[in-house]
Every structure is written in structure tokens, then in C-alpha cells.
Design brief:
348 residues, alpha/beta, eight-stranded mixed β-barrel, 42% helix, binds ligand C2E, binds calcium ion
Length: 348
């Protein structure tokens, strides 16, 4: 394979620049190198990862090939099951799209392109609306409605999520104020909070500032965190969350049961609301065993004085099952999709 260059860049990151057409030749090379490394003294502990670019992509400019290999490596990391990633057209499109969104995000925020949608939460049985979750959408002038899955991961990478979340919190407080002025029923609204906020030393001050600005009680805004994000630095997370809760904030644990959920976490973190992930109610998983697990999660949460919200409820069968096991509140397409504020006000 002398028409390829393979080099270790840093740590366990390798690039391969090649003009070989056959993937299998390159994969063979990857396997050979991996095997060689595992024979070294610390080799068995290493898992070398390869970003691969081809000469045809850029007429053999080594600098450019290196950059593309770097993109491929970064792109594959966490996504790819293999230890190698070939740079390809799909990666190129993704990168171009990301760059475009990134160059537009600041203006989009200033010009009000980010819109808060609300998904109502219902008492199972009575169908009374007792809360809502704020979910952001980007109403892009050319692309139309862009959903969070397209931009939240990007904004977590470039930390713009900190600004966007604060924007959402503020819009929600404005809305709650508006409802108060109009004499409408007050319901708490849950907002999502990126894990990056847990690193910010003035999180509590920021939240208090926004709430005071619109004179909203702390119970008006529920803070939603996903369980996965708490893992990064659990002690720190516990300290910050306990501080928020002492101040009177309501903490929701989002997506419970979706990832590495740990009952341990419930012991350590002062959670008010447990949001059970929609995966739990997936018809395919709702086997007799699955049902028993959900049932005991619900009764455990109750005994721990947590409220429970079942997320992603899509069918009548799921609703009646939830009723049967004593789950009080549900949110999901079966009741309502997330809707615009205007629609929410009209409907409720
Ligand atoms: P999430 O917090 O778990 O929000 C629930 C997601 O499930 C929403 O997707 C909602 O539209 C969807 N959903 C609700 N009911 C059903 C159902 O019955 N079936 C199915 N299949 N899906 C249902 P959405 O709006 O696309 O948001 C995706 C994720 O993006 C959210 O997941 C949340 O993690 C994140 N996100 C949304 N808005 C914000 C925000 O303002 N800040 C931050 N940091 N993250 C946000
Ligand atoms: Ca959420
Ligand atoms: Ca969720």
C-alpha cells in the first residue's frame, strides 16, 4: 500500500491519506496497524481511531487531505461503530450545513427566528392540562421549520446553547407574565437545560434575574435535565442542583430510563419530577416484563415523593396502562403534539 500515507497525529488518532479505490485494502491496513499496536507494551489498552481521506477528493493536496481526514475522524467519533471513518459526500454535506447554521445562529436569535413551542401535559383520566414543556424550533427563512435534533448537538459543541436556553427561559417567563395579566390559569412550564449550564458559576443568578425581571415565582419554571448529562461530574452536578432546589426551583429528570439510568442517581440528586422516557412505552418493549419495570418505577417514584410524567405517549393502550399503574400525568402525540404559543392559547 505504498500509495497511502498513514500517520499518527496525536494520542490514538491516526490519519490515512490514500488514492486507493478499494475500501477493503484500507480496512486491511487499519487492521494491520491496530494489531501491531496491540502487540506493544501498552498496546492492549489503546484503541487507535482512523480518519481516512482519498486523493480524488482534492487532487492530492496533502494539506487538504489531512483536513478531510480530520473531519472524517471527528465525524466518526461517537457515531461510528468501527474505528475508522472514510471522508465522503454525506460528511461534506453535513459539515457545510453545520457551518451554514453556525454562521446564521446569532442573527437568527436576534431576529426572533427561534420559536418556543409548547407541548401540554395532561392528567390521565380527567384530561386536565396541568403543565407544558417548552420545546424550541428554528423557523428558518429558507429551510422552513428546523427541529432541535438538527441544531442542539451543534449548539452544544459551540456552546451557543447557553444563549439559546436563556432566550427560551426568558420567552417562557414573558409568556407566564402575559397569562397572569390576562387572568388565565397559571400552569408551570418545563424548560430544557443543557448540561453546559452546570459549569457556569452564575447559573442561579441568571435564573433569578430572569424570574425577577418578570416577577415569576420559582414554581412557574421547571428545570429539565437529562439523566445522561449528570454523569460527567456527578458531585458537581449534585451540588449545583441541590443549591437550585434549596432556592425553590423544581427539578425534572428528563428521559429517565433512556440511557445509563441509575437508581443510584435518584438517591443522590434531589429530583421533584421523574419524566419516564418514551422508550419505556414502546409497544414492542411493553412486554409483561417491561410492564412490571414501569409499574415499579412509578411506585418507587411515588414513595420518594416525586411526581411522574410519562413522555411520548402515542396510543390509547399506553394511556390505559399508565392509568392502571397509577401514573398521573402524561405528555405525548396521543394528546397533543408540541404546538405554537398562539395555538396553545386558543386551545387551552
Ligand atoms: P425532550 O426534552 O425529550 O423533548 C421531547 C421530545 O419528544 C420533543 O422533540 C417532542 O416533540 C417529542 N415528542 C413528544 N411527544 C412525542 C410522542 O408521542 N412520540 C414521539 N416519537 N415523540 C414525542 P423535539 O421538540 O424535537 O425536541 C428534541 C429534544 O431537543 C428534546 O428532547 C430536548 O432534549 C432538546 N430540546 C428542545 N428544546 C430545547 C431547548 O430549548 N433547550 C435545550 N437545551 N434542549 C432542547
Ligand atoms: Ca425535555
Ligand atoms: Ca424527554
Amino acid at each position: 500500500l505504498f500509495r497511502s500515507i498513514c500517520a499518527r497525529i496525536y494520542a490514538d488518532v491516526f490519519y490515512i491519506l490514500t488514492d486507493y479505490q478499494e475500501d477493503s485494502d484500507i480496512i486491511q491496513l487499519v487492521n494491520d496497524i491496530t494489531k501491531k499496536i496491540s502487540g506493544l507494551e501498552y498496546g492492549p489498552m489503546l484503541r487507535p481511531c482512523f480518519g481516512i481521506s482519498r486523493g480524488e477528493e482534492c487532487e492530492n493536496s496533502i494539506t487538504l487531505l489531512c483536513e478531510l481526514a480530520a473531519f472524517a475522524h471527528k465525524y466518526g467519533k461517537g457515531k461510528s461503530l468501527t474505528t475508522w471513518t472514510f471522508y465522503n459526500a454525506a460528511i461534506r454535506e453535513d459539515i457545510i450545513e453545520e457551518k451554514q447554521l453556525e454562521s446564521e445562529m446569532e442573527f437568527a436569535l436576534r431576529s426572533g427566528q427561534f420559536k418556543v413551542f409548547l407541548q401540554p401535559q395532561y392528567v390521565i383520566g380527567t384530561r386536565e392540562v396541568v403543565g407544558a414543556e417548552a420545546l424550541v424550533r428554528w423557523e428558518h427563512p429558507e429551510k422552513g421549520m428546523v427541529y432541535p435534533s438538527k441544531f442542539i448537538p451543534l449548539f452544544e459543541k459551540n456552546e451557543f446553547i447557553l444563549k439559546l436556553d436563556e432566550y427560551v427561559w426568558e420567552r417562557v417567563c414573558m409568556l407566564l407574565k402575559r397569562w397572569e395579566r390576562l387572568g388565565m390559569k397559571q400552569i408551570p412550564i418545563a424548560v430544557n437545560m443543557s448540561r453546559l449550564h452546570l459549569r457556569s458559576p452564575d447559573l442561579k443568578e441568571k435564573l433569578n434575574y430572569i424570574l425577577e425581571k418578570y416577577q415569576i415565582p420559582k414554581s412557574g419554571l421547571e428545570l429539565e435535565l437529562t439523566e445522561n448529562l449528570l454523569f460527567e461530574d456527578l458531585d458537581n452536578a449534585i451540588r449545583i442542583l441541590a443549591g437550585l432546589r434549596d432556592e425553590g426551583f423544581t427539578l425534572n429528570m428528563d428521559d429517565f430510563g433512556s440511557g445509563y439510568s441509575s437508581l443510584n442517581m435518584l438517591r443522590n440528586i434531589p429530583i421533584d419530577v421523574l419524566k419516564i422516557d418514551r422508550n419505556f412505552f414502546d409497544e414492542k418493549i411493553l412486554t409483561p416484563r417491561g410492564k412490571i419495570i414501569v409499574k415499579y418505577v412509578v411506585s418507587m417514584a411515588k414513595e420518594l415523593n416525586m411526581r411522574i410524567v410519562a413522555e411520548g405517549v402515542e396510543t390509547a393502550a399506553q394511556e390505559s396502562f399508565l392509568k392502571e399503574i397509577g401514573c398521573d400525568v402524561a405528555q405525548g402525540y396521543y394528546f397533543s403534539r408540541p404546538i405554537s404559543i398562539e395555538e396553545f392559547e386558543k386551545k387551552f
